[in-house]
Amino acid sequence: MREEFEKLVAAGKISRQHLEPLLQLAKGGYCTHRSWGFGKITTVDTVFCRFSIDFQGKAGHSMDLSFAAESLKPIPTDHILVRKAADLASLRQMAALHHLDLIKLVIQSYGGKATLDQIQQVLVPDVITEDWKKWWEVAKRELKKDGHFQVPLKKTEPLIYHAKEVSLQSRLLEEFRAAKGLKAKIQVATELLKSLVDLTDAKAAAAEVVTALNADIASHQRTLSALALEAVFLRDELRAAAGLPAQEGELTDKDIWSQASKAGQILEALPAAKHKRALQSFREMYPDRWVEYLLGALNSVSAKLCSECANLLVHESKLDLLKEQLARLVSQHQASSELLFWLGKERSDAFADILGPEVFRAMLTAMERDQFNEKKSNRLRDLILDDQELIVELIGSADLEVIKDLTRALQLSPCFDDMDKRSLLARIVKSHPAVQSLITGEHTKQDTSFFVSWASLERRKSEYNELVQKRIPANSKEIAIARSYGDLRENHEYKAAKEMHRILMRRKSELETQLVRARGMDFLNPKTDVVGLGTQVKVTELDSGHEESLSILGAWDGDPDKNVISYLTPLGQALLNHKVGEEVEFEMDGSRKRYRIDAIETWKASEPVPVAVEQPA
Question: Could you tell me if 411 and 477 lie in one domain?
Answer without folding.
Answer: no
